[in-house]
Structure formats: structure tokens, C-alpha cells
Automatic annotation (TrEMBL):
Gene3D superfamilies: 3.40.50.2300. Residues 4-70 form the Response regulatory domain. This is Two-component system, OmpR family, response regulator RegX3. GO terms for biological process: phosphorelay signal transduction system. Keywords: Phosphoprotein.
Amino acid sequence: MKYDCLIVDDEVILAETTCEYFNMFEVRSAYVTGAEECERFLQEHEPSLILLDINLGQTSGFELTLGVYA
């Protein structure tokens, strides 16, 4: 499935609320709460934009981008 936006944030309430807000304006959005979940999501879906939190608990957004796009 194609998404307009993927939100990656380990703060569940923030990710969920942002996703709901975007969806209200017909920006087809989904959210994940960690790096591994993001990698699995990207194997099956193709977002146009990724909003990525830099501080993801055990890893960082920088490390995630290196792993996914290297």
C-alpha cells in the first residue's frame, strides 16, 4: 500500500496523534514506534515522506537511515 507519510517516533501518543491529524486532512499516514518496526514497514509499504524522530530509544534516526538506505 502507498502512504503519503510514515511517522517514526517512540513516543506512542505523539505518533498516534500526529497520524490521526494528518489523516483528518486526507494525508494517508501510518506510524511505527521503533527502528525495527520501521524497517519491516518499509519492506511492505512505500511512503512518499518519512517524519523521523532522531532519538528512538536504543537507536537513533541517523542510524536507522544508514541501515535502510545504505
